[in-house]
Design a protein that fits this description.
- This is Iron(III) transport system substrate-binding protein.
- It is a single chain.
- With 344 residues, the protein is α/β, with parallel strands linked by helices.
- The protein folds into 2 domains: 189 residues, D-Maltodextrin-Binding Protein, domain 2 (3-Layer(aba) Sandwich); 140 residues, Periplasmic binding protein-like II (D-Maltodextrin-Binding Protein, domain 2, 3-Layer(aba) Sandwich).
- The chain contains 12 helices and 14 strands.
């Protein structure tokens, strides 16, 4: 499969169509950690701005310029800027797949943070860093089920992906459309890896009979569950806990075996302020940086920082489904196109 084409199609979680500058866009410098740091991210703008402010507070004389955009937009911008890079680091993309593909385009480069230099490549089946340190995980995302606590009793909850086929959920279930949503595409790819393609397609034919809608947005099923338009849906953990913190009647189930991915950070190759980029990566992995992520209902990669959610790295690791990342990248377009032909 042409991986360049994959870059154009993957919308891994929060994909937008425009790139907006959320911080100041002043000129960068070669002045190291105290200079201007250009920080690219598709994650929540308020959260990334808070990360920038916290870094500046801990590093007098520094300035963090946050550049926000969807994962596709950021990757394509990095490709376009390859001969004259403007960014220093890239954080977040809804998981590791965009970073795995970016390695082949030589738009990111290796950096071994001193504090985590002894990290293994994998921990309990979860890949937590690149073999050559071209990216490192900052937090953990869990794919599972969001449910409406007013409509679903705890003893009814599904504990596995197969449990979603129970007649209890017919007409009361939603998942995003894999033709448009990276969250749903991850769901499909993981089931294909676990069951094989023939049995995997049989599973999704049955699952689609359960659904009352298949929206394009990865967050739409969570919103439908909160409104009572569905009783259960496919979501990442932080989506449910952010909504719960806002007062929505929702909660989250971690399936027995499910995709669990780290959300990485990487140093941009030949960026204008590499020392600043490295320093910011160090900050993201520090107790201070991890605490900001935790306060936004993410699961920190550091086990000495607690999330505001009931989940932790230690508690979710036993649920990790082994993932063949190379297979996922190689087959992304093909599986997505087959989905279109079968279900649209």
């Amino acid at each position: 499969m042409n991986r360049v084409r994959w870059l154009q199609s993957v919308g891994w979680i929060l994909c937008l169509t425009v790139l907006a500058v959320v911080g100041c866009s002043g000129e960068t410098s070669q002045g190291g950690a105290a200079g201007a740091i250009s920080f690219y991210s598709p994650e929540t703008p308020d959260m990334t701005k808070e990360l920038g402010r916290e870094y500046e507070k801990n590093n007098p004389g520094s300035r963090v310029d946050v550049q926000y955009g969807g994962t596709n937009v950021i990757v394509n911008r990095l490709i376009a800027e390859k001969d004259n890079p403007m960014g220093d680091l890239w954080y977040g993309g809804g998981g590791i797949l965009p970073f795995e593909t970016a390695k082949e385009r030589a738009i990111i480069t290796s950096y071994i943070p001193e504090e985590i230099k002894d990290w293994p490549v994998e921990r309990n089946g979860i890949k937590i860093r690149d073999e050559n340190w071209e990216w490192v995980g900052t937090e953990v995302f869990v794919l599972g089920f969001i449910y409406n606590t007013e409509k679903v009793k705890k003893d009814e909850l599904p504990r596995s992906w197969d449990d979603l086929l129970d007649p209890r959920w017919k007409g009361k279930f939603q998942m995003p459309n894999p033709a448009a949503s990276g969250t749903a595409t991850l769901t499909v790819l993981s089931r294909m890896m676990e069951l094989g393609e023939e049995e995997g397609w049989e599973f999704f034919e049955k699952l689609m009979d359960q659904a009352n809608a298949m929206p394009d947005s990865g967050s739409a099923p969570s919103q439908a569950v909160a409104k009572g338009e569905a009783e259960i849906g496919v979501a990442f953990d932080f989506m449910a806990y952010e909504m719960q913190a806002r007062g929505e009647n929702v909660d989250f189930v971690v399936p027995e075996k499910t995709p669990i991915l780290v959300n990485p950070v990487s140093l941009v190759k030949d960026g204008p302020n590499p020392e600043g980029g490295k320093a910011f990566i160090d900050f993201l992995l520090s107790e201070e940086g991890q605490r900001v992520l935790a306060d936004w209902y993410h699961i920190p990669i550091r086990e000495d920082v607690e999330s505001k959610t009931p989940l932790s790295l230690e508690s979710v690791m036993p649920h990790a489904l082994p993932l063949d990342i190379d297979w996922a990248v190689d087959n992304y377009d093909r599986i997505r196109n087959e989905w279109r032909s079968k279900f649209e």
